[in-house]
Amino acid sequence: MTTDAREEIRGIGHSVKRIEDARFVQGRGNYVEDVVLPNMLHMAILRSPYAHATIKSIDTARATASPGVVVVVTGEILAAHNLAWMPTLSGDTQAVLATDKVRFQGQEVACVIAETIAQAHDALELVDVDYEPLQAVTSPQQAMSAGAPIIRDEKEGQTDNACYHWESGDAAATEQAFAAADKVVSLDTYYPRCHPAPLECCGCVADVNPADGKCRIYMTSQAPHAHRTLFAIVAGLPEHKIQIISPDIGGGFGNKVPIYPGYVVATAASLLIGRPVKWIDDRTGNLISTGFARDYHMHGELALQGDQITGLRVKMLSDNGAFFADAQPSKFKAGLFHIVTGSYDIPTAHVVTDGAYTNKAPGGVAYRCSFRVTEASYLIERLVQNAAYELGVDPVDFRKANFIKPEQFPYTSATGFEYDSGDYEAAMDLCLEKMDYTGMRADQLTARADGRLLGVGIASFTEVVGAGKGKDYDIAGLRMFDSAELRLHPTGKAILKLGTKSQGQGHETTYGQIIASQLGIQPEDVLVEEGDTDTTPYGLGTYASRSTPTSGAAAVIIARKLRDKARLIAAHLLECAPDDLEWDQDRFHVKGATDRVKTIQECIFAAYSDLPDGMEPGLEGVHYYDPPNMTFPFGTYGVVVEIDRGTGEWKVQKMVAVDDCGVRINPMIVEGQITGGLTEGYAIAAMELIDFDEDGNCIGSNFMDYLIPTAWETPVFDLGETVTPSPHHPIGAKGVGESATVGSPAAYVNAVIDALQHAGVTNIDMPVTSSKVWEALNEVGLAL
Amino acid sequence: MSTQAPPAARPVNVTINGQARSASVEPRALLVHYIRESLGLTGTHIGCDTTSCGACTVLVDGVPMKSCTMFAVQVEGKEITTVEGLKGAAGLHPVQEGFHEEHGLQCGFCTPGMMLSSKALLEDNPDPTEEEIRWALSGQICRCTGYTNIVKAVQYAAKKIREGSAA
């Protein structure tokens, strides 16, 4: 080949249209609910109507006699197989089906397995459960008070409702900073319980073949390999005979990380009956029993000397519901909440977190967030704004005075993180410019003089994503590395298999582009496979923005290893020394002789047809990547709102989001991730709420009560970027899926508070509903 | 104690994506189950059970309907369009092309319903404003995209259809 026009390789930096779209726009996706197997049975779950009640008896006789019913599974039946309880991802236990008592409304009590789903639902009505209601505990404060009913009375040694205690930072040094402070600013705020609510509910089809014992489970799983190992441990099944297939996933956002009772019962039932069993949760089941998010009661204090933050003290009480079923690294009881020092150079910090059991659904998970980073980011960004008001300075100036400076990286935070890189002021300046911050401040004063309320809110967040390193971060003991296996086939096409699992993030395109950038094979010629534990290499899955930082890095490295081998083959073909060759996008040429060329396709074919003597044939390999550190994406978000003084309604006039996630592989997909995250951030700030009444009845148990914004309510976003590559990631990428959900809630709320702070309003907890704003307007005399 | 068996299944005849089809279902069967299970067209999804999310939206005689909120027996003799019927002999429908070109989908679960509502909108109003598009899709939830690119996808399709009919 010589100097013909070469096709551009669509690698890093190209907005390649998504490869996976073809099947989705034609209705040819394959979600778990689409899986239909011969002779398949259907399962429906009977859930507790009470938040806290003793189960006196369960009578399944009428249900069992109902047409089409094969079996009614109760906790008693599971107990005979030692499956009535299962471990959670946080080292606690959770009831699979209740035996002694129910501990939250919606808890799984029995499962009906029938020939059709309609028959299963018919029979649910015929299961007679005799409950004796107990007092419900619906807040962590109530749970931790003397005399509260003990929720986890079945746990040996459990004499109260405390579920964990965890501290981070240096208590003594922080006390000193506060003693020496000339001002202390504090904030009490509640980050309410919300729910990831992916549009596809959780479900599975469990298919245990009685002939050979092979247990194939199609499952809505963000972490199929980890789930397979836990299934092996919990059910005692041989791991090599368990195959978890996570097909197309209709959104996850953390909700599909935990293992739920439905998966376990369906699998146990298939094993006992010898037929496939399908369980697809309904929306109410999803909202009232599966991984919720947040529910953190937070108290934060900043010690100030002049305009400098000298200390941060945080006390936090989390509501974990009836079972501590957080999905997070095992050494970190409050996840990565200790990133709460945020983007600021705070010399001392001390974080105390306590968790409580309550009669609410178990959890939680990190809804589009890396292990509780959102709560931390929200607290610090709300605190710094209030501190600026107390000091009488602009919140922007106060942030700039306290930012970690670019030359301080790598920066070790007071709670022990080593931030890899950052340039916070650059991202902030771009945001301020795009939103016309100065102009907006002037408009605000003019508007106020006219009796209108404008608010300008900023959040300058820093995330910590991409877990591990494996030495420090593990899920249920499994180190948080990830993997990529690359096979280059003789005609130059590739199959890439990974330990992660897309739920809409566009992995089939992004990973293909990574290979394109390293080997010059177009992304369309790379088939990306994930989610099948029989065929993909082991990895910990997709959550916490970790796919690009971990499997993405593994893909780069294995591609480079295969390119190194291809170099040896090219040298053989060109009869030169390997060191005499130069790599150029998709080919090797002899240095100084660009007409002596072997393309990657020629090298690959030769790997199967014309090898140097003694070389191992083929061009395939696998790499397991244990990241040396986390990555630290950051950004500044700016929001302008106007509040209606008559109704308390607030509307977003402007929303600018500047993100720095390091190198962007597919800018279109990155912006898509950010836009989606900004919308979920808005949803959390404005409307999403899982609430409970005093009896523990869940309010927010369906999409009529759990409000999610549509295209009509969702604001318009203006995006910007800066690029500070991660110094330790092989292509400088940091992960981006969650930045916007982490950073934006504080920006929206800060804007609302900013509109009211001149009248003395310092806090309104999320969701910032019109009625709460209207109450605040009335309290400070601004209501019309 | 209720021992009454559910009423017997009865045949429901429809024209779906241009094809005459018939299947017997119980009178209580929902349209979405008839489409997914009896007719085997799984592109129509179920997201909420309460007519809130719109993932199950199909066209019944050209009108977007949430198929989780209709009984199958109600569509006897009617024309149904599902996502599987969008692509024609000339290739992808402009709304399918628009969703791909403008990155209007991520997980793909809401996409079929979104596209069918968009198709109905554009047949009614070939040159909608952004506000009209947002209103037309306001019965539907997307958790992934944040809607910006869905709006762009509909605008792309509108332009393409207008150019096509002008040509």
Q: Which terms would index this structure?
A:
heterodimer, A: 784 residues, six-stranded mixed β-sheet, B: alpha+beta, five-stranded mixed β-sheet, 5 helices, 34% helix
Can you tell me about this structure?
The complex is a heterodimer of chains A (784) and B (167). Chain A is α+β, with helices and mostly antiparallel strands and 784 residues long. Chain A has 19 helices and 35 strands. In chain A, strand 12 (215-219), helix 7 and strand 13 form a beta-alpha-beta unit. In chain A, helix 10 runs parallel beside helix 18 and helix 14 (507-519) runs parallel beside helix 15 (547-574). Chain A starts with 20 loop residues before the first helix and ends in a 5-residue tail after the last helix. The model of chain A has no long low-confidence stretch (mean pLDDT 97). Chain B is of the alpha+beta class. Chain B is 34% helix and 15% strand. Chain B is built from 5 helices and 5 strands, in the order ββαβββαααα. Chain B has helices at residues 31-38, 94-101, 111-124, 130-136, 148-166; strands at residues 10-16, 19-25, 57-60, 63-66, 79-81. Chain B has a 5-stranded mixed β-sheet, with helices on both faces. The longest helix of chain B is centred in the last third of the chain and has 19 residues, at 148-166. The mean pLDDT of chain B is 96. Chains A and B meet through helix 1 and helix 17 of A and helix 2, helix 3, helix 4 and helix 5 of B.
